[in-house]
Each structure stands twice: as C-alpha cells, then as structure tokens.
Amino acid sequence: MKLWRWLWLVVTLGVLAEGFRVALFVVPSDAQQGNVARIIYYHVPSWAGMGLFFAINLACSLVYLAVRNRNHALAMKADSLAVASAEMGVVFCFIGLVTGSLWGRAVWGIWWTWDARLTSTLVLWLIYVAYLLLRRFAAGPQMRTLAAVMAIFGYLDVPLVYMSTRWWRTQHPAPVFGGAPGSGLDPSMMPAIWWNLAGWLMWGIFVASLRYVSEYRTQKAEQDEALKSLEFAPAQAQMAGGR
Amino acid sequence: MNMGQRHLVIAYTATILIHLVYLGYVAVKARGAKKE
Prior knowledge:
- The structure holds 2 protein chains of 2 kinds.
- Chain A is built from 7 helices and no strands.
- By secondary structure, chain A is mainly α.
- By secondary structure, chain B is mainly alpha-helical.
- Chain B is built from 1 helix and no strands.
C-alpha cells in the first residue's frame, strides 16, 4: 500500500475515533428520544456515503458509455471505479437500512414498515445488488455496457428516495436536514454529525480506492491475456493450415 | 441498559462490523488481483 494511503488511513481512523467520542460522550442526548437518537450520527453519514458513491457510479457509467469505443484505457478506469463505487454505495445503503430498522424498533415499536422512504430505499439497494450480480454472473463483451446502462436507470431511484419524505406522508420523519423552516438538529449536536460525516466519507474513499486498484489490475490482466491470445492466433492458424 | 441504549450499541456495532466484513472482501480481492 502506498504511503499516501497509509497517511489517509491514519487520519481517517483519527477522525472516526473523535466522531465516536463526540457522538457518544460529548453532545447532549435528544430531549424526546434519549440516547437512541444518537444512531443518527451513523445513520445520516451512511446515507451521505450512499449518495456520494452512487453518484460516482453514475458518472463513471456515463464516461464508460461515452468513451468505450474510443479510449479503452479511460473506459477501463471508469468501469473499475464504477464497480468500486457501486459496492461501497451498497454497503452504506445496507448500513442505513440496518441502523434505521434498529432505530425504528426502539422509537416506533416496529422493525419495518412499507412506507415510501423505506420501500424506495430497499428497492434502490436491490437495484444495485442486481447491478453487482449482473457484473458477477453475466458473460460476454457486452456485460460492461449493460451494467453501465443499468446503473443509469438505477440511479433514477436516488432522487425518488431523497424526495419521498417531501412528496408523501410517511412513517419516516420529515427531513431533518434541508427540510421545512425550523427543522434540523440543535447546533450543540452538529459537531457529532460533522465528525462522523467526514470520518465515514473518508473511510469510504479509502476502501473504494483499494477496491478500484484491485478491479483495475484484474481487468488489465484479463485484457493482456486476451491480447496475448490474439497475437498467438495467426501463428496457430498458420500451423493448422500447414498440416 | 434500556432498549434504546441497547439498540444504539447494536447499531454502532453493526455499522463497524459491516464495514469490516466489506474491508475483508476487498483485501481478498486485492490479494487475488496481485497474484494475476
């Protein structure tokens, strides 16, 4: 692992540790819900991470489709980053669903309800899991193109998830951030949000960068293998013709 | 420990565990890519 990655990891772990300390021991507990509301300090960064990495996946898919026939090196990089960001987004989305379910059980008394926010988020998670399954099990040269197209359609659910609590009355609370006037956390609680937001996004970037490198290496090795077999193909054909 | 605190601890633990499991998967993939 390169030096900058080690430095990034050290800083990230420091920010996460500080985020943990501030979230659990420094900021006050919620006046109505008590300590369980501290789940928000992991729940919200997970959604922010999901939004960031699915947006990267969309951008990379668009780049891949635009350059796949003209610039193979850039297309391979874009496709590798698309895989890494989709996986990271799925992980963040899953954590958001799990922490939300645990929070809901404590506050609403139920693990799950089929309201607009929860259902659209589950559908989003399933779409990106399907995207990863397509990449894993589909074969042939069109797989990457199909995956990129699927990623573009899949991303259409992201604004739907974001707007679901604004468009429909849901069991899920109204938006805390960017909601109606008077919404939002008490300023004394915001440091825990900022520390955890920074820490988990930095963590996501770290892990996704590792995943990107391994995916790129794998794709490069596969391409080299294919080119090598093409180089040998004419010679083999000549040998077969001479027999 | 009441139910709220218990769920808070479970949520934090689950978050960290899920990230670590994925990190393990990434490490396995990285090792495979290096061998190629």
